[in-house]
Amino acid sequence: MEKKEKVLNGVKEIARRAKVSIATVDRVLHNRAGVSEKTKAKILEIIKELDYKPNILARRLASSKTMHLYTLIPERSAETDYWDVPLQGIFQAENEIKLYNVKVSKFFFDMNDKQSFIEQTKRILKETDIDGLLLAPAFVEEAITFTEECKRRNIPFVFINSDIPQQKSLSYFGPNLFHSGQTAAHLIQYLTKEADKVLLLNIAKDIDSDHHILRKQEGFMHYFQENSPRTIVTENLYDTSYAAVKKALSKIVKADPDLHLIFVTNSRVALVARFLKEIGKKDILLIGYDFLPNNITYLNEGLIDFLICEKPQEQAYRGIKALYRFLMFEEDQEKEYFMPIDIIHRENQQFYKN
Amino acid sequence: MEKKEKVLNGVKEIARRAKVSIATVDRVLHNRAGVSEKTKAKILEIIKELDYKPNILARRLASSKTMHLYTLIPERSAETDYWDVPLQGIFQAENEIKLYNVKVSKFFFDMNDKQSFIEQTKRILKETDIDGLLLAPAFVEEAITFTEECKRRNIPFVFINSDIPQQKSLSYFGPNLFHSGQTAAHLIQYLTKEADKVLLLNIAKDIDSDHHILRKQEGFMHYFQENSPRTIVTENLYDTSYAAVKKALSKIVKADPDLHLIFVTNSRVALVARFLKEIGKKDILLIGYDFLPNNITYLNEGLIDFLICEKPQEQAYRGIKALYRFLMFEEDQEKEYFMPIDIIHRENQQFYKN
DNA sequence: CTGAAAGCGCTTACAG
DNA sequence: CTGAAAGCGCTTACAG
């Protein structure tokens, strides 16, 4: 490596030009009180003139502060281990930045228990050192209450997985759910003829207030209104146990011998794959969501044909990094970052990065 | 942010325990000469004991050296602007790390002119300050000669876009070409019936030595040998002008009125889309490669049905970052990083990140 | 073979 | 309202 030529740099140069000490420069840099308007204006001018950019390394090295980030996401549940993946993303980001004195405190709630969400938000709000927050706002009303308090305290927060636009988070990292449904629909249009029957299957305890499912379904239906139509049958399964799914599907498959394709609107597609495997039916195409271990197994066995996935690990990773960059560098962050909507099948699955 | 408690840290603590100065500690840390075996051993032991990790920020701040990276990739050509995208990735990485005294010097060669490649490698080798190199090894023999010289000089290099495994680069970032062909084939299996005719179309000046095309084609053919077969016709078009492509396709389409699908093995798929548009034929499915502006236009018009893409921008971005991390942190790098093989259609294209 | 000292570009008490 | 000085954890001449 070659030597760097030397020039008087940074705060020193500013101080020299403004004929003040570097401490005073530092004060205006951080907008701290105790500088006369006159010197402040002068220094600000020089900063602009020089297009001064602080050296982050030096700043970090000299500072003795720890940045405290908090996260609140669902814990993995009996129904799906989906939330393991975003948690990995949090760890990944944490590993990258812990050198710079960043701590991440992780809190979890139960997807099927609104009360647990409320309790966790209360636990978090007891802390006094919250510099930033990452949140999966599964319960909308409660998430609004929570983030309102954050705003009052001037704590920046980012949403992942689903958005609440009116809360004006620092950033949102997650899918565009409507287009996710459209993406599935467009693919399915290629896989079916007009006469083919398509089953849209929602499997979740609380479908009617599940924003994810509802929006995807809207996008899906919208697509087939605008494009060559298909015969679409919708079924809602509120009991997510395999026994219940099996019972319901048996009836459906029996009643509809020429069912061509089943589209499951979330990661529970593995339950359907298991059923199809058990009855030995391989001529029904099956499409679902999320790159999870048991889904991948069924994909490789040929029971699931396509998985749609929106990089849940990267969502959380980017969320943490956005908070970090905002707090550390005062960098502006992208308001909405929609994840790519990935189409995975048996032959490209081995290279997928979640 | 909360204050950090203070402990004696790093080189100072090591020096204290070893009863030497920090300069000596620094010497063994960097494996520099001039330390007695005895003190060296002692210091090494303490380093291990403490599980000492150097503070990169401090190291960077104190060092007055500039890291010099070189890149050699094709320039954009009349046939495709594909190579604009990796170049963006180089700029993206450069922007992130230029704060840390990294310079990236960019060299380009003409994809259709082997001599230009040789000339550029010679220009690069005239430099004496090469810390690392990123290379798209389009001409295999010449790339071997070049990287052999790099090895002699102890310069680490990474490959992008295509690999030469026996050269043992620091890393490779690019597609697994064989599986890329298989991915296209698997998708096409869903889009066709056994009786359908599929045209595999290679459009390039030098198909017979185009590693990319050949390996993709192998993967494609292999898939249909292992799985339910299709009638596949292969055509090689060595003249990449639109006039020539048009002429050849007119003949093919006329001779084969029930042609069902055309698969173009590289980014030249836009030429075929243009042709299909001109003759007003919308019932032939069209699949090709790469997320480039004119391809996307045809995708949105419904003339191209699917694009396969392997994140060329990210390839170059990761390549530069790998060199940087290796040189800066002495981090081990992944030998082979195969990019995901992405499937893009009209409805998910707007969220794709190249 | 080894060490004392200055410096990288900042932040942080402390003193006035 | 302002400045001098020490320090963050390293690297780099320089002296012996």
TrEMBL record, chains A, B:
It comes from the Bacteria. SMART domains: HTH_LACI (SM00354). CDD domains: HTH_LacI, PBP1_sugar_binding. Pfam families: LacI, Peripla_BP_4. The keyword Transcription regulation applies. Coiled coil: none annotated. GO terms for molecular function: DNA-binding transcription factor activity; transcription cis-regulatory region binding. Keywords: DNA-binding, Transcription, Transcription regulation. Residues 12-63 form the HTH lacI-type domain. This is Substrate-binding domain-containing protein. It comes from Sphingobacterium zhuxiongii. The lineage of its organism: Bacteria, Pseudomonadati, Bacteroidota, Sphingobacteriia, Sphingobacteriales.
